[in-house]
């Protein structure tokens, strides 16, 4: 057995294997963001391949027939591998015609449907037999390559044979098929499955009880309805889509045409050994085809199965494109643990690696460290793709998630991990995130490596390594209370992860192999990790290590726990080596406590909780933790578990044979899951060069002693903001005339390489250094010290300047070919652009915007990113109202603009679907610098400025502000990085002088969205709303806006009223639930008709006899209260209150005010008056003739009045 010790923490998930044959995510072309050349034979790796849809989407993007692609599909699940080989075999066959309805139906049945007709059964049987014959004869087609071991091929053949056997024995029999269908429904809903917990867990967590969970398919349908985003679709179409989704979850099928008689069940969707349904409950065939474009859906009433028809059409197009280019694509199948292939699986280097959601399973740091081993780091365009759906569980922003997962600020990531972020994630999301917890794609590129630089441990680097050490050497904290719903704690990193990072940095520091870790990074860990640390150091220094293995049968409790409880998972495992005597005594105490008849059940629970410590090292002496381990769970022929095989590394002279035993524990709870045996009984094999770790550390070349004078970098200290390099000048003469040059290429202001030259002594060669993080070429500080013949060089990192790679990226965005923005529904009260703008603001930003609009001093307290978001949003809002020119200045110096901006309408649509405005920007500070350096003529500059920013009709530019220098630099960074992405428009090419020495930019702006619009918790939202309402009351601003969600206060065209009171609106059900604690106090159920009419009569009489009353204006009572208008005379004209009644949805709410001052006005009820009146109408009892006109007669000036109570379900019309 080949053993691989993974850097990721081992988890127990074998007893609950969930397959994802449908992918579960929207399919995408992974080469979409690849900017490299397609003219060569590019190598692509799908590291965590589950579904073939991404492969087909990628091949479908192929344009040039002369290109040749090698696509490697690495599977960790053998069932997914067997399915994908079958699919490609089917669609690659010359006999398969996707235009044929029968062929397409067969492929759809094979891929998605659970119940098969006889035609599908017959074709499937023939295809499997053909595959078996091909593999057994080793007559594999040249179209596919298989990189698998012999035992893997045998297991693959056994899966195909098992499918055929299942079809002949179980899946074609009606009674057994019905039973499997019932079990599938129970699995999806959670019904019929008893959660059996072991006595140990029951005692450790009294909250765990034996009970039966129940569920409802409607919940799954509701989740899919939300994912499909069909809220605004026509009601009839929406009803069809929901019904179609529900039918799939009920039957497992989604097909066109008539329902045929079932002949068999799809064996590829079942667990091979047990024939159990183990597909993730939320998976649906429609997921990978989302979004369902309304324009492409067949919406006629006669068409059924709308979603299936749409998805089959999309699949047909993908298969057609694959068959078109299949001769130019070589598919390689692999079956290896995802991280193992990165370290020991292949010597190939890949241009693109798609890791899918692997980071959510093994940790982002492990994925980056492992994926980089296979990435073609010599190509700056090589791409590593990671996707995360869990980032919002731990962080507020994606940038914070990256920094917390990698234990380093973004500016230190290139040095520590050797990769850079492809996008400026610190600016927010590139697309509008309209759902809670949205998945996010993070792309990575290689960076230039250190050259002629000896890295040392700086305070910043040491701080990063210390943070990483805390995550890798996880130390339990007994004070942390773990809620039951957080049982799966995300602890992915291990000591081996830290060792990988230390190895990389030591190599860059020029350390010899024996000094790799101890001299580069000194760590002081608790004693329980001393053995693990010694193991890593022994292997680093090429001293022998022992491979320790143990095989144990499962205890009865564990057998029942693993085999009968299908939802229990031990997410993070750790092996403890504890003193045998102490462990045996503890087990005896537990046994006596359990068997005691003198203790009550409560007393037993209290006693037993003390026997299972969360931190074993505090309760026992001489305990050793092993976090890097290999586990293999052995099964019986029926698929049940029977034993566990464990393997880990120890130093050869560990000295634990006669004193210690092994225990497998759950890292989260400290619970002892299994006794592994005594160390003296373990099998121990000494390895000199084992194959279960990563490739060896490469020592740097030995220094060559040169007689000629030269320069050498003695050390380099890196911080978050700069590099500080100490350079020694090896000469006896005095050095003179230092000059510095860089690889900067204008208009970029940054570079990676710096060259130092000295004119004396003669023969001194130039000294060039390279750095992974780009530095500012114009901010280099160099000090030549003749006394000790050294140079101190300080390079400021380009934190607010695009890198050279950004300016060199191709192809550029052609803005002239982009579509013009069109509102999907012009009648919506809120434009779609405003919804996109609201996606850039959280509740704090909304409050800051209101405060700064009335008090500019409040603006200075805003963070830089919030300032930039407000500036870009203001350009969008004001350009719609006709503003063309904008000036940006600081609030401290408002007279001298920093930037002048001219917008070029119309609004365009980016390839990602966001609105964008093409702009021409003048950087005034850069213009002054160019004029001072003689690179720009002042007269020509003024002429260009007047011509480009010609303010027609004496229009004054709209003023925008920045709060600080950091905010100004951030805005400049946004404008410059957008300019690097696009090709200037035709007008800009003809009218704007662009070039190396130009202060003008052809750029664009697009909303800088929040990574998650629902990142605030309920308490934060409530507190901010109180502050906003207080501020509005102080400045007489309407409190409520009918187009704003009552909780998150964001604009949306999809607001829905509270179904109980109809008084408030929310954008999502989540917002409504979160606001219920506040809203329930004023959410009133509508009254009955008789009660309503009695109140109406009472209030009407009171109003007619009152000397004064209040009138509220709004679409409902909640918003009407925000716009109070008091009438001292109840018979004044109402024409100034509202627009023309026929063109508004607003109403009048009247509340009489009694003369008596001791009446509690809060107890007065409101009356809603819906009036249809002539212009200038007054009360019918006291009509005042207009000036110069006669008194109108009652017959010609009638008024229809509608009275309503607080609840508006019952309406009574009264004619007067």
Protein model, in words:
The protein contains 34 helices and 39 strands. An 8-stranded mixed sheet has the order 4-6-2-1-7-8-10-9. The protein has a 6-stranded antiparallel sheet with strand order 19-20-24-23-22-21. A hairpin with a 3-residue loop joins strand 19 and strand 20. The longest helix has 20 residues, at 150-169. The termini are far apart.
Structure, briefly:
By secondary structure, the chain is α+β, with helices and mostly antiparallel strands.
Q: Into which percentage range does the β-strand content fall?
A: 15-25%
The counted number of beta strands is: 39
What is the share of helical residues? 25-40%
Radius of gyration: 36 Å
Report the total helices: 34
Specify the structural class: alpha+beta
- Give the uncertain stretches in residue-range form: 191-215, 478-489, 511-519, 691-706, 1087-1093, 1102-1216
Q: Give the N-to-C terminal Cα separation.
A: 94 Å
Give the strand order of the largest sheet, numbering strands 1, 2, ... along the chain: 4-6-2-1-7-8-10-9
Biggest sheet character: 8 strands, mixed
Rounded mean pLDDT is 77
Shape: globular
Question: What are the SSEs and their pairings?
Answer:
Blueprint: E1 41-46, H1 53-60, E2 68-75, H2 78-92, H3 101-111, E3 115-116, H4 118-136, E4 144-147, H5 150-169, H6 174-189, H7 199-204, H8 217-228, H9 235-251, E5 264-265, H10 306-325, E6 329-335, H11 340-345, E7 352-354, H12 359-362, H13 364-374, E8 383-388, H14 398-406, H15 413-417, E9 419-421, E10 440-446, H16 459-472, H17 495-509, H18 530-540, E11 545-553, H19 556-564, E12 573-579, H20 580-595, H21 601-611, H22 616-619, E13 624-626, E14 629-635, E15 641-651, E16 660-666, E17 672-678, E18 683-687, E19 710-718, E20 722-730, E21 736-742, E22 750-760, E23 767-785, E24 790-797, H23 804-808, E25 813-814, H24 832-838, H25 843-854, H26 864-880, E26 885-890, E27 899-909, E28 915-923, H27 924-932, H28 938-948, E29 958-962, H29 965-981, E30 982-983, H30 986-991, E31 1000-1005, H31 1018-1034, E32 1056-1057, E33 1065-1066, H32 1069-1079, H33 1089-1104, E34 1108-1114, H34 1117-1120, E35 1124-1127, E36 1147-1153, E37 1167-1172, E38 1200-1204, E39 1212-1215
């Amino acid at each position: 057995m080949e053993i691989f010790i993974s850097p990721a923490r081992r988890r127990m998930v074998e007893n609950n294997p969930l397959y994802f044959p449908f992918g579960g995510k929207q399919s995408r072309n992974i080469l979409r963001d690849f900017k490299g050349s397609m003219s060569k034979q590019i190598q692509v790796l799908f590291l965590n391949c589950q579904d073939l849809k991404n492969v087909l989407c990628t091949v479908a993007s192929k344009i040039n027939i002369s290109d040749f692609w090698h696509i490697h599909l690495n599977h960790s699940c053998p069932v997914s591998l067997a399915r994908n080989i079958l699919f490609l075999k089917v669609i690659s066959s010359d006999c398969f015609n996707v235009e044929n309805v029968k062929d397409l139906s067969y492929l759809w049945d094979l891929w998605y449907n659970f119940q098969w007709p006889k035609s599908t059964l017959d074709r499937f049987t023939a295809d499997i037999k053909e595959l078996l014959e091909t593999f057994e004869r080793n007559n594999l087609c040249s179209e596919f390559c298989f990189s698998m071991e012999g035992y893997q091929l045998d297991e693959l053949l056994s899966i195909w044979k098992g499918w055929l056997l299942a079809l002949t024995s179980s899946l074609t029999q009606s009674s057994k098929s019905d039973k499997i269908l019932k079990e599938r429904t129970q699995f999806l809903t959670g019904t019929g499955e008893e959660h059996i917990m072991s006595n140990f867990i029951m005692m450790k967590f009294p909250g765990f009880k034996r009970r039966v969970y129940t569920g409802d398919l409607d919940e799954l349908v509701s989740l899919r309805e939300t994912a499909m985003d069909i809220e605004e679709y026509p009601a009839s179409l929406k009803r069809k889509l929901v019904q179609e989704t529900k039918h799939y979850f009920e039957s497992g099928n989604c097909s066109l045409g008539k329902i045929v008689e079932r002949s068999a069940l799809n064996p590829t969707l079942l667990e091979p050994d047990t024939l159990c349904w183990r597909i993730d409950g939320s998976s649906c065939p429609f997921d990978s085809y989302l979004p369902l474009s309304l324009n492409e859906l067949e919406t006629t009433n006669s068409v059924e199965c709308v979603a299936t028809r749409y998805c089959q059409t999309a699949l047909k197009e993908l298969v057609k494109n694959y068959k078109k280019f299949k001769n130019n694509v070589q598919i390689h199948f692999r079956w290896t643990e995802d991280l193992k292939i990165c370290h020991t699986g292949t010597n190939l280097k890949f241009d693109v690696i798609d890791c899918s959601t692997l980071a959510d399973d093994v940790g982002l740091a492990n994925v980056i460290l492992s994926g980089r081993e296979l990435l073609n780091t010599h190509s700056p365009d090589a791409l590593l793709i990671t996707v995360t759906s869990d980032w919002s569980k731990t962080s507020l922003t994606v940038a914070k998630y990256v920094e917390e997962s990698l234990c380093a600020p973004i500016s230190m990531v290139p040095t520590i991990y050797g990769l850079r972020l492809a996008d400026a994630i610190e600016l927010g999301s590139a697309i509008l995130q309209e759902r809670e917890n949205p998945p996010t794609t993070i792309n990575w590129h290689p960076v230039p490596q250190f050259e002629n630089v000896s890295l040392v441990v700086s305070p910043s680097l040491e701080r990063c390594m210390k943070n990483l050490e805390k995550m890798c050497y996880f130390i339990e904290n007994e004070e942390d209370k773990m809620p039951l719903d957080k049982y799966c704690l995300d602890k992915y990193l291990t000591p081996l992860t830290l060792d990988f990072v230390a190895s990389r940095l030591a190599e860059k520091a020029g350390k010899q192999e024996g000094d790799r870790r101890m001299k580069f990074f000194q760590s002081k860990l608790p004693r329980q990790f001393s053995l693990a640390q010694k193991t890593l150091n022994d292997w680093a220094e090429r001293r022998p290590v022992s491979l320790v293995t143990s095989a144990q049968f499962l205890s009865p409790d564990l057998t029942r726990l693993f085999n009968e409880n299908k939802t229990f998972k031990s997410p993070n495992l750790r092996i403890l080596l504890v003193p045998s005597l102490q462990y045996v005594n503890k087990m005896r105490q537990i046994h006596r406590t359990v068997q005691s008849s003198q203790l009550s059940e409560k007393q037993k629970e209290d006693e037993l909780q003390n026997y299972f410590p969360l931190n074993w090292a505090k309760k026992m002496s001489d305990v050793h933790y092993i976090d890097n381990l290999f586990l293999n769970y052995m099964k019986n022929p029926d698929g049940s578990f029977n034993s566990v095989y464990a393997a880990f590394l120890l130093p050869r002279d560990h000295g634990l044979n006669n004193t210690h035993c092994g225990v497998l524990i759950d890292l989260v709870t400290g619970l002892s899951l299994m006794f592994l045996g005594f160390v003296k009984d373990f099998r121990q094999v000494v390895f000199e060069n084992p194959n279960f770790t990563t490739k060896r550390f490469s020592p740097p070349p030995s220094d060559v002693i040169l007689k000629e004078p030269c320069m050498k970098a003695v050390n380099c200290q890196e911080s978050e903001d700069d590099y500080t390099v100490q350079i020694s000048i090896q000469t006896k003469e005095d050095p003179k005339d230092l000059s510095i040059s860089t690889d900067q290429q204008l208009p970029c202001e940054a570079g990676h390489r710096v060259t130092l030259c000295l004119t004396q002594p003669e023969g001194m060669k130039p000294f060039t250094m390279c750095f992974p993080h780009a530095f500012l070429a114009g901010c280099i500080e160099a000090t030549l010290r003749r006394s000790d013949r050294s140079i101190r060089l300080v390079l400021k990192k380009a934190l607010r300047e695009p890198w050279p790679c950004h300016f060199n990226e191709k192809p550029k965005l052609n803005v002239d070919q982009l579509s013009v923005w069109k509102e999907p529904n012009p009648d919506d009260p809120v434009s779609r652009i405003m919804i996109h703008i609201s996606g850039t603001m959280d509740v704090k930003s909304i409050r800051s915007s209101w405060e700064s609009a009335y008090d500019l001093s409040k603006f200075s307290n805003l963070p830089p990113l919030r300032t930039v978001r407000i500036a870009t949003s203001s350009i969008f809002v004001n350009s719609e109202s006709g503003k063309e020119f904008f000036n940006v200045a600081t609030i401290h110096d408002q007279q001298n603009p920093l930037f002048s901006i001219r917008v070029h309408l119309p609004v365009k649509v980016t390839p990602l679907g966001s609105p964008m405005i093409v702009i021409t920007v003048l950087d005034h500070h850069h213009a002054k610098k160019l004029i001072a350096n003689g690179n720009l003529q002042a007269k020509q500059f003024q002429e260009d400025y007047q011509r480009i920013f010609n303010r027609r009709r004496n229009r004054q530019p709209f003023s925008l502000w920045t709060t600080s220098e950091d905010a100004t630099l951030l805005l400049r960074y946004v404008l410059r990085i957008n300019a690097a992405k696009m090709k200037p428009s035709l007008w800009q090419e003809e009218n704007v002088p662009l070039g190396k020495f130009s202060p003008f930019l052809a750029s664009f702006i697009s909303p800088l969205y929040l990574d998650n619009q629902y990142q605030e918790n309920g308490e934060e939202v409530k507190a901010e709303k109180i502050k906003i309402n207080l501020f509005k009351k102080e400045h007489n601003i309407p409190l409520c806006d009918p187009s704003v969600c009552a909780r998150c206060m964001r604009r949306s065209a999809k607001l829905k009223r509270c179904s109980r009171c109809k008084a408030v609106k929310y954008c999502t059900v989540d917002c409504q639930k979160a606001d219920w604690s506040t809203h329930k106090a004023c959410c009133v159920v509508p009254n009955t008709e008789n009660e309503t009419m009695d109140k109406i009569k009472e209030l009407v009489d009171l109003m007619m006899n009152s000397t004064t009353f209040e009138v509220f204006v709004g679409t409902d009572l909640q918003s009407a209260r925000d716009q109070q208008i008091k009438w001292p005379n109840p018979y004044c004209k109402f024409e100034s209150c509202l627009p023309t009644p026929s063109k508004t949805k607003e109403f009048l709410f009247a509340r009489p005010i009694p003369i008596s001052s001791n009446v509690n006005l809060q107890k007065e009820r409101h009356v809603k008056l819906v009036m249809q009146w002539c212009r200038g109408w007054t009360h019918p009892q006291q009509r005042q003739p207009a000036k110069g006109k006669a008194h109108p007669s009652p017959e010609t000036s009638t008024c229809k009045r509608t009275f309503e109570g607080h609840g508006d379900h019952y309406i009574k019309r009264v004619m007067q």
